Amino acid sequence: MTTDAPSEVPALPVTFRPRRTRAVLLTVGAVMFAVLTAVALILERLHPGERMSFILTAGLFYGVLILMSRPKVVADEDGVTVVNLTRSRRLSWPEILRVNLRVGDPWVFLDLSDGTSLPALGIQPGIGRAQAIRDARALRALVENRGTGAEQR
Fold first, then answer.
1. Those residues with Cβ within 8 angstroms of residue 17's Cβ, 6 or more apart along the chain or in another chain
2. How many whole angstroms from its chain centre is CA 130?
3. What are the pLDDT tens digits along the chain (153 aa)?
4. Cα separation of 27 and 34, whole Å?
5. How far apart are CA 39 and CA 57, in angstroms?
6. CA-to-CA distance for 43 and 45, rounded, in angstroms?
7. What are the phi and psi torsion angles at 11 (to 5°)?
8. Is the peptide bond before 71 cis (omega within 30 degrees of 0)?
């Protein structure tokens, strides 16, 4: 991602999430659940326990896809909440030094004031590259406007 292009600071609160990826995951999950459930109910040779195992397996697959569609980044007046697959973390604006989305990165990384880097899966190029770049630039503009990242580089 080029850092030279200026980006407008979005109004708060704002939520960044991979919309296309989320739509694909939830649609595929719903279709897969429906198909496996239909197969379980249509096949006459299956015993009730086997039917239930089909439906439970379909539910498990759908649950995993729902979990994979969970990531988002929420920015508000007080800071940023990064929601990844199984964890979420709340950061105040001064904790975020830099927003990085380099060529080949699977998602945005936030450089933090404690010397660590936090992946923010809510902004990922995947199948929505242009949107991810816009979102990363908007989050970068927010960090530079509200945090201490601009002074500490």
1. 71, 72, 73, 122
2. 15
3. 444 455 688 889 999 999 999 999 999 999 999 999 999 999 999 999 999 999 999 999 999 999 999 999 999 999 999 999 999 999 999 999 999 999 889 999 999 999 999 999 999 998 888 999 999 999 999 999 987 654 444
4. 11
5. 12
6. 6
7. -70, 145
8. no
Q: What would the two tokens of residue 18 be?
A: 């991979």
Length of the chain, in residues = 153
Element (H, E) at 37: helix 19-42
Full-model pTM: 0.81
Residue 152 tokens, joined: 């500490």
Residue carrying the six token digits 């739509």? 23
Residue type, 12: L
